[in-house]
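look at this stuff:

>
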Amino acid sequence: MKRAITPTDVERMMREDDFIVSMTDLKGRITYGNRIFIEFSGYSEDELLGTQHNIIRHPDMPRAVFKLLWDKIQAREECFAYVKNMSKDGGFYWVFANVTPIYDPSGNVTGYLSVRRKPRQSGIQVVSSLYAAMLEEEKKAGPANAIAASTKLLVDVLNEKGLSYDELVLAI
């Protein structure tokens, strides 16, 4: 059972040479986390293994971003994203994530691999305002329509810029 954690304004900054690595099964349950993942999440390895990866989901993250991510990886595509994560103590840390399917020798997807590195400050500034606007749309639309409402806002912004989400996050 996930404990209620109160977010704080305490930010942890990734170091230039940090790589946070985790793997999940097809349902998003953590099967591996490297020492940097354990360090930044604030959870022990025992607390992480077998737990849903969303244990580190920060409430400032729009649900539509995770739907986009899941849609892409379930379609056997990789996904790049700026993500704000929350540590066990309520602090937060931004990452630039690359999430890819893991394949067995027969070509079947058996899980997902996520490698996160220190994000660009300019990228955080761009997505922070975009994510805040998406969250506002989710709140206005209510739980049943939240993802559709913030997805529409994201798609409108991307269409206006003539970019896909991956192109946007790789460019900022």
About this structure: The domain at 19-119 is CATH 3.30.450.20 (Beta-Lactamase). DSSP finds six helices and five strands in the chain.
